[in-house]
Inverse folding.
């Protein structure tokens, strides 16, 4: 097991290096620079702009810039943002908690919907409940988050005026009021992300449970006269959850990606909105760092999924 | 207006027969910007150039106003005014930092950290235009309790002009000399007589950062200064917290130097998102008090306004949305350089084609259906204030006349109805940046051109590429590898000198200057160059104003520039918010005076 872990980690290093080369090259080849607004302002002499470009090292050859970045990265320096002149690491750390809270809450919501609904639907296949759940799940994961997000804003903020649609990370309140304000402003983004994810997982849970429910050991358990609840909990769900758990782990990075759009709509100061604004401002060090963090997440969660899989299913061994 | 009339009017102001405001209005009617007009008075020694348009502030005790929430759909990323690359950062810095003086809406100077506005009578302004002496307000303290003195002002000059600092304000500071006269007096010296002296230390370019916190961070390590993200200024609000790209929070400064101010106890500036939802959050749901720069179609704004909770503020500015017709040939290479300044555009070298193009632009419809209150159709490149209509120039939308003109010039309709002459077809590539209103304008012009036998191929380039200074990219607006292009040029300074240098022959964008020259159309005119040189050295404000008006007419008659709209800045605020806005300065220039009406 340890040997397997070490081997996997060793493989991760060249893949991360490869990813960084590709990312860096694409970003370096992409046109544009962060000084768009200076361009049409006659009060700023063009050579000031050129000087700024040079001071950020934008005019150096790509390979030189890449190695400078790589060595800084190896020393743990993420570099400075072009537009805010703040260390990139700080920017990311500042925004990480918000993203984790919103994504975490939405994932919990998704699981709370997907598990009971999926299991219940699978134990009564083609019943009315199953059909309704199936239809809703289809609708749920067919609607993109940007659409449901705008729909929710229109409904709950504009027409009903119940919820705020601008997320504020610093709320001037203490105690219960602080919790209440945070809850109120988180409801919509969490629902948007959670319902989307929940709908996709519901269908997956249902089919996983359906696969297990037909197996011989379930029939045996039932014929032993075990109560139905016990059969479902101990004999069906436990086995059916093995692929579900890996799926959840594998999908985590995708969820981070999906949150980008939602963060933009609700003005949530998370990693996703940092990435979008950096891309719009051509802030290469930040784009590089955030995408690199995503790459690390993908690789890590892949590894976690593989390990979890073996732990849940002893038939799989690591060699 | 003739010089004599102007001199008589200045005389009447001096004698007190005419109010300064009436003078500014009369000047505006003949096309002299309000800031110019007040400078004329200042240089001519008629009354001090103190703003009269800042409304009276109604409170005598500060505080008690609760929270003020401002929404920007772009977010500030940095709080050092010398590094403020875009407007959003300038605005965020202006919350904490103040200049010596700011520009009021009528274009007059209003003292902020200065005790008074320099003029010839008070001895602040040298008669030869070679220096200006600023007296500083006494008793001003930085937020950390230190005194604000002339040393701070001198430090800002050194900081801004240092090439290693790479400050965006360097253009204002590197050609002037600043001298400390005493602890509360600073003299700015110019190499040449400078008619427009109110640039260094004024408004956006003049926000003062404290010497005691920045003196160890000049030059190469300037980006490491902790105060870049934790500002200590002199303003009405002091720093609480800042998340780059998201929220800026401030609280009332109890030791502010203007009495009775500010009204609000706390301030929040939230950034991010998009313009439409920002407008919604103020006008429709009133979650926020003020939304900046609402570049939203007017139709939507009118609908949101009908909710009755907020209103749209329109402030005139000098920005001009215009079309450029290339004077060089973008499809011929000379020494490996396209659009080389030695070439001539095969079609646009014919004056009839240029004139026809101007006739095919339906400015009134563009204003009515696309920009609404966001712009005013204009025949001029330099137009301030917006109600200015030159006697000399006018515009017209007339497809028939364009057709007649092209027929007369020998451009005959050929294959597919496209006109041609001597093998040159009237088929143009028309580029602009990606921006919904601009794409709609492109469509409108294309349709009109079609009816005149001119075919336009439309192209839209992402703004961050179009406006970049990337030498390697062929799609930047400075390279102008197209026949026509359209964009907005801002006029942040109230004086037209920097604004109008974009048509001088020495500013032609070419490979030698890495396409950094500001003359993008590469149009050249000896007459224009002479007028510009004359204006640069002209100390007589009357003659100087006449020169700029002539320059505008020369450019428009040259035909390579088709002005569309004089753009206004559009913002939204809730009904009970009282603010002081100006088209010549930042939104936050008088944040100290913002309050709520009861």
């Amino acid at each position: 097991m340890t040997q397997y872990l070490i081997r996997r980690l060793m493989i991760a290093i060249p893949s991360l290096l490869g990813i960084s080369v590709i990312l860096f090259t694409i970003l370096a080849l992409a046109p544009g620079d962060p000084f768009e607004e200076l361009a049409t302002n006659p009060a700023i002499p063009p050579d000031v702009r050129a000087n700024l470009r040079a001071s950020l090292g934008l005019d150096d050859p790509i390979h030189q810039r890449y190695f400078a970045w790589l060595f800084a990265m190896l020393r743990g320096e993420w570099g400075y943002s072009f537009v805010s002149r703040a260390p990139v690491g700080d920017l990311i750390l500042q925004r990480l908690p918000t993203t984790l809270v919103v994504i975490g809450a939405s994932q919990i919501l998704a699981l709370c919907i997907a598990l009971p609904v999926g299991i219940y639907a699978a134990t009564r296949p083609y019943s009315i409940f199953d059909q309704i759940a199936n239809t809703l799940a289809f609708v749920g994961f067919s609607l993109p988050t940007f659409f449901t997000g705008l729909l929710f804003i229109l409904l709950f903020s504009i027409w009903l005026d119940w919820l705020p649609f601008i997320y504020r990370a610093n709320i001037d309140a203490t105690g219960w009021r602080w919790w209440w304000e945070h809850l109120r402003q988180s409801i919509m983004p969490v629902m948007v992300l959670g319902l989307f994810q929940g709908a996709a997982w519901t269908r997956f849970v249902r089919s996983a449970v359906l696969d297990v429910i037909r197996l011989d050991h379930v029939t045996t358990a039932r014929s032993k006269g075990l109560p139905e609840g016990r059969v479902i909990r101990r004999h069906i769900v436990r086995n059916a959850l093995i692929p579900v758990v890996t799926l959840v782990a594998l999908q985590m990075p995708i969820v981070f990606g999906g949150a980008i759009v939602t963060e933009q709509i609700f003005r949530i100061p998370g990693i996703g909105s940092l990435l979008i604004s950096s891309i719009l401002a051509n802030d290469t060090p930040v784009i590089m760092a955030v995408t690199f963090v995503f790459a690390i997440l993908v690789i890590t969660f892949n590894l976690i999924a593989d390990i979890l899989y073996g732990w849940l299913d002893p038939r799989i061994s690591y060699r | 207006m003739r010089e004599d009339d102007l001199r008589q009017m200045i005389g009447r102001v001096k004698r007190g027969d005419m109010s300064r405001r009436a003078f500014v209005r009369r000047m505006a009617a003949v096309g002299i910007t309000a800031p110019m007009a007040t400078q004329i008075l200042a240089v001519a020694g008629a009354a001090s150039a103190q703003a009269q348009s800042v409304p009276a502030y109604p409170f005598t005790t500060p505080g008690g106003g609760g929270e003020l929430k401002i929404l920007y759909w772009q977010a500030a990323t940095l709080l050092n005014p010398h590094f403020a690359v875009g407007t959003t950062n300038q605005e965020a810095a202006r919350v904490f930092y103040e200049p010596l003086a700011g520009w009021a809406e009528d274009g007059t100077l209003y003292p902020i950290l200065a005790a008074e506005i320099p003029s010839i009578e008070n001895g602040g302004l040298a008669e030869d235009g070679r220096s200006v002496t600023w007296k500083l307000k006494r008793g001003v303290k930085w937020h950390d309790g230190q005194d604000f003195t002339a040393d701070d002002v001198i430090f800002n000059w050194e900081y801004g002009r240092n090439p290693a600092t790479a400050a965006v304000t360097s253009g204002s500071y590197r050609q002037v000399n600043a001298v400390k006269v005493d602890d509360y007096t600073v003299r700015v010296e110019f190499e040449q007589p400078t008619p427009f002296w109110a640039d260094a230390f004024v408004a956006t370019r003049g926000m003062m950062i404290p010497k005691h916190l920045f003196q160890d961070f000049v030059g190469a390590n300037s980006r490491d200064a902790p105060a870049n993200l934790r500002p200590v200024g002199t303003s009405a609000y002091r720093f609480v917290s800042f998340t780059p790209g998201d929220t800026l929070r401030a609280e009332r400064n109890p030791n502010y130097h203007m009495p009775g101010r500010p009204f609000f106890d706390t301030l929040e500036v939230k950034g991010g998102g998009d313009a439409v939802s920002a407008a919604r959050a103020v006008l429709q749901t009133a979650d926020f008090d003020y939304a900046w720069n609402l570049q939203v179609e007017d139709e939507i704004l009118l609908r949101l306004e009908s909710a009755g909770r907020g209103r749209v503020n329109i402030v005139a500015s000098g920005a001009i949305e215009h079309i450029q017709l290339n004077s060089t040939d973008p499809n011929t290479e000379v020494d490996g350089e396209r659009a080389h300044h030695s070439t001539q555009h095969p079609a646009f070298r014919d004056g009839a084609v240029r004139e026809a193009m101007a006739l095919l632009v339906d400015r009134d419809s563009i204003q009515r259906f696309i920009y609404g209150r966001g712009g005013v159709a204009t025949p001029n490149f330099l137009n301030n204030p917006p109600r200015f209509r030159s006697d000399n120039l006018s515009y017209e939308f007339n497809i028939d006349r364009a057709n007649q003109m092209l027929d007369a010039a020998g451009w005959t309709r050929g294959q597919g109805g496209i006109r041609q002459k001597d093998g040159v077809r009237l088929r143009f590539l028309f580029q602009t940046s990606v921006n919904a209103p601009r794409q709609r304008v492109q469509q409108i012009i294309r349709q009109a051109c079609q009816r005149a036998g001119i075919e336009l191929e439309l192209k839209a380039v992402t703004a961050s590429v179009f406006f970049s200074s990337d030498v390697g990219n062929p799609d930047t607006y400075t390279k102008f590898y197209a026949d026509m292009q359209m964009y907005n040029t801002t006029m942040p300074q109230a004086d037209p000198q920097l604004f109008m240098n974009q048509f001088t022959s020495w500013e032609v964008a070419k490979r030698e200057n890495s396409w950094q020259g500001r003359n993008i159309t590469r149009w050249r005119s000896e007459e224009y160059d002479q007028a510009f040189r004359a204006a640069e050295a002209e100390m007589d404000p009357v003659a100087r104003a006449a020169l700029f008006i002539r320059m505008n007419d020369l450019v428009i008659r040259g035909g390579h520039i088709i002005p569309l709209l004089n753009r206004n800045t559009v913002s939204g605020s809730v009904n009970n918010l009282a603010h002081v806005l100006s088209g010549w300065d930042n939104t936050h220039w008088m944040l100290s005076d913002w309050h709520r009406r009861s």
Remarks:
- The CA atoms of residues 1 and 261 of chain A lie 39 Å apart.
- Chain A has one domain: 88-312.
- Chain A touches chain B through 54 residues (CB under 8 Å).
